[in-house]
RNA sequence: GGUCGGUUGGCCGAGUGGCUAGGCACCGGUCUGCAAAACCGGGUACUGCGGUUCGAAUCCGCAACCGACCUCCA
């Protein structure tokens, strides 16, 4: 593929050339978490996938407005008719204000995201802060005749909508199939049709989160917030909407219907969906209760974990698979990522110390082209990483004098690596390493210690030399003897 | 049941009509006081059966198995 960005559009099920609506601006929206619990590996995949989309678009020179919402109201436990709000349930169980629950898990989500080097979005709107906008959209949908009130609640009339606009295009469903598959309600429902979904729910007396409206004191339906908030911040039409594949139906399908019903046209040009993390071949999810929390990964505190994994290991693990493929969790795979990442980052350190020569024996421009092509081909990070490892071999050979690069080419290579590894993939050395760095006190001390050790080695006093190396190893520092002196680095933590 | 997707070597995971993906693990070698790292070399692969083709892991058909969505789920 050439040097233009193509992304797989769920709407067409094909890779399409990306054309921004209003270059250099790009509007990007992705569905954030419902904050009633801690984030697990699946949340990390979603966040990292669209973090890379965000980073890469910026790399290409676009001015991106990235909106990632926080669902803090309206997400029900069950079927829209009988379920209770997830946050309300949690609040009741823990005897907290719903907003205390929201704040608590939102803070923890942000901590997790920071650890994973996920950039904060441009705007992080919360559903509870946009009740007016959501009510306004309901009004528009009702005016257009695609919603009805029943008992103080308002429902979207899917069947009527489908008579004027196709419903189910995104998820590839036909309304007839859906109808024949829905279980029959026992007549208690206010909905005219089982496919209808709630835009506004009347609050029962025990419900804490409630707002006045023309229909009842109540709260908005889950699907509504994304339509209302994306329109508010990105306009009636914007470039990319992302989310996990499990949100495709009904969430995103309903979102499209709401926008078409309320504003007369669909809002999103490119729909992108990341695939799920599996564990023992099965989807990792809250409903299956087989998830591993990010905090558990970072501490190793989970029965399925053989060790703790650094956030960067988790990030690298996720980036080593294409976002549209399932990715199977296993200790073996995580450990392989840990080592691979270490190899990549160590090479990056070595690269910084290299000096240019008179000739070049390697094709840096060719490597750069392969890297761009990989990313332009639907954000193919695993292929990109494969190319970067080709370069790792180069770097190591350069360091050992088996290859040469001119200062000019070396500069290009350094720029390439820092650009892709740091800026686009968002991979950074662990905090212990960057905190100590290669400068400052610890660096000076290490120079001193290694100098003493090298003196001992010169005198064939290997006992002393090994004693120093073992002692440093116990402190988590690895000494590597090279031809021209010794090098050192921190051991991978955990 | 409906719709969609997958099945690649010891593990993870790309790719694609003919050219080594890559990482990890493993084996041999070089270097080294030893070790680590690095470098060089090596083996094991495309679920099965048919078809199209000069040539298929890659396209088509059938079968088996696995999974996702159809209710909440990133």
Portion of residues within helices: 40-55%
- Mean pLDDT, as a whole number? 90
Biggest sheet statistics? 4 strands, parallel
Radius of gyration equals 27 Å
Mass-distribution shape:
elongated
Q: Looking across the biggest beta sheet, what order are the strands in?
A: 4-3-9-10
- N-C termini distance: 40 Å
Write down how many β-strands occur, each being a DSSP E stretch of 2 or more residues.
Answer: 15
Spans of at least 5 consecutive residues whose pLDDT stays below 50 are: none
The tally of helices reads: 17
Portion of residues in beta strands equals 5-15%
Structural class: alpha/beta
Blueprint (SSEs and pairs):
Layout: E1 6-9, E2 14-17, E3 25-30, H1 41-59, E4 63-68, H2 86-94, H3 98-115, H4 131-143, E5 147-150, E6 153-156, H5 158-164, H6 175-181, E7 197-202, E8 218-220, H7 222-234, E9 238-244, H8 248-263, E10 268-274, E11 277-279, E12 282-283, H9 294-299, H10 311-319, E13 327-329, H11 331-353, H12 364-376, H13 381-399, H14 407-424, H15 431-436, H16 440-458, H17 462-474, E14 477-482, E15 485-490
Parallel strand pairs: 3-4, 3-9, 9-10, 11-13
Antiparallel strand pairs: 1-2, 5-6, 6-7, 7-8, 11-12, 14-15
This protein binds one RNA strand of 74 nucleotides through helix 1, helix 6, helix 8, strand 12 and helix 11.
Protein architecture, described:
The protein has 494 residues and is α/β, with parallel strands linked by helices. The chain has helices at residues 41-59, 86-94, 98-115, 131-143, 158-164, 175-181, 222-234, 248-263, 294-299, 311-319, 331-353, 364-376, 381-399, 407-424, 431-436, 440-458, 462-474; strands spanning 6-9, 14-17, 25-30, 63-68, 147-150, 153-156, 197-202, 218-220, 238-244, 268-274, 277-279, 282-283, 327-329, 477-482, 485-490. The longest helix has 23 residues, at 331-353. The model has no long low-confidence stretch (mean pLDDT 90). The structure holds one RNA strand of 74 nucleotides.
């Amino acid at each position: 593929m050439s040097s233009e960005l193509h992304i797989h559009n769920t709407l067409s099920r094909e890779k399409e050339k990306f054309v921004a609506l209003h270059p250099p601006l790009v509007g990007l929206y992705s569905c954030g978490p419902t904050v009633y619990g801690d984030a697990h590996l699946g949340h990390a995949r979603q966040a990292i996938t669209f973090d890379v989309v965000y980073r890469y678009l910026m790399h290409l020179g676009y001015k991106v407005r990235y909106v990632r919402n926080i669902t803090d109201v309206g997400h029900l436990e069950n079927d829209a008719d009988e379920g209770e709000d997830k946050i309300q349930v949690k609040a009741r169980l823990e005897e907290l204000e719903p907003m205390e629950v929201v704040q608590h898990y939102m803070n923890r989500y942000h901590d997790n995201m920071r650890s994973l080097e996920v950039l904060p979005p441009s705007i992080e709107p919360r559903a509870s802060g946009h009740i007016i906008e959501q009510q306004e959209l309901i009004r528009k949908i009702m005016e257009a005749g695609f919603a009805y009130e029943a008992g103080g609640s308002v429902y979207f009339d899917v069947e009527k909508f489908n008579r004027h606009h196709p419903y189910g295009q995104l998820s590839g469903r036909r309304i007839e199939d859906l109808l024949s598959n829905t279980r029959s309600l026992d007549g208690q429902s206010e909905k005219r049709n089982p496919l209808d979904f709630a835009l506004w729910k009347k609050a029962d007396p025990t419900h804490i989160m409630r707002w006045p409206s023309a229909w009842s004191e109540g709260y908005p339906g889950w699907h509504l917030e994304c339509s209302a908030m994306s329109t508010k911040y990105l306009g009636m039409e914007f470039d990319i909407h992302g989310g996990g594949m499990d949100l495709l139906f009904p969430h995103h399908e309903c979102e499209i219907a709401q926008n078409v019903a309320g504003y007369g046209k669909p809002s999103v040009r490119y729909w992108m969906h990341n695939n799920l993390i599996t564990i023992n071949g099965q989807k990792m999810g809250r409903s299956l209760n087989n998830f591993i929390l990010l905090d558990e990964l970072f501490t190793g505190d989970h029965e399925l974990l053989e060790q703790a994994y650094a956030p960067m290991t988790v990030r690298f693990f996720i980036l080593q698979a294409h976002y549209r493929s399932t990715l199977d969790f296993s200790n073996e795979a995580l450990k392989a990522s840990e080592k691979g990442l270490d190899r990549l980052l160590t090479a990056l350190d070595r690269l910084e110390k290299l000096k240019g020569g008179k000739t070049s024996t390697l094709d840096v421009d060719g490597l750069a082209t392969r890297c761009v092509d990989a990313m332009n081909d639907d954000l193919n990070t695993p292929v990109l990483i494969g190319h970067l490892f080709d370069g790792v071999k180069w770097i190591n050979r350069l360091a050992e004098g088996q290859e040469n690069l001119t200062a000019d080419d070396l500069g290009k290579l350094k720029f390439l690596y820092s650009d892709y590894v740091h800026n686009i993939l968002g991979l950074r050395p662990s905090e212990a390493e960057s905190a100590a760095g290669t400068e400052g006190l610890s660096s000076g001390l290490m120079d001193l210690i290694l100098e003493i050790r090298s003196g001992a080695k010169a005198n064939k006093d290997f006992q002393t030399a090994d004693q120093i190396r073992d002692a440093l190893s116990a402190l988590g520092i690895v000494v590597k003897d090279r031809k021209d002196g010794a090098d050192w680095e921190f051991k991978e933590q955990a």
